[in-house]
Amino acid sequence: MSTKVTVKGQVTLPKAVREAAGIRPGDRVTVRARPEGGVLVERNEAPQLDAAAVKAARGKIERALAALDHKGVKFEMTTDEWIHLLRGDD
């Protein structure tokens, strides 16, 4: 497989390569030049969430579920309404 380098030095990794390496949108990768030439692209390990981040996320989910239970789920809700419901006023 080949891909073109843009004027900004960017390349698009072909879908088959992304899938084989487990690279998804938003993932971080490490790029290294090999001494014999060529480039190595590796997926970084997913960052570990700290306990406080997990607790905060769990609290937001629980508040959203409580709001859904209290209000009833409306399937007509807009994306903005869902986002506001899930994120609150943060």
UniProtKB/TrEMBL annotation:
Coiled-coil intervals: none
Keywords: DNA-binding
SpoVT-AbrB domain sequence ranges: 1-47
MF-aspect GO terms: DNA binding
Keyword match tRNA processing: no
Name of the protein: AbrB/MazE/SpoVT family DNA-binding domain-containing protein
Source organism of this protein record: Methylocystis borbori
Taxonomic lineage from the root: Bacteria, Pseudomonadati, Pseudomonadota, Alphaproteobacteria, Hyphomicrobiales
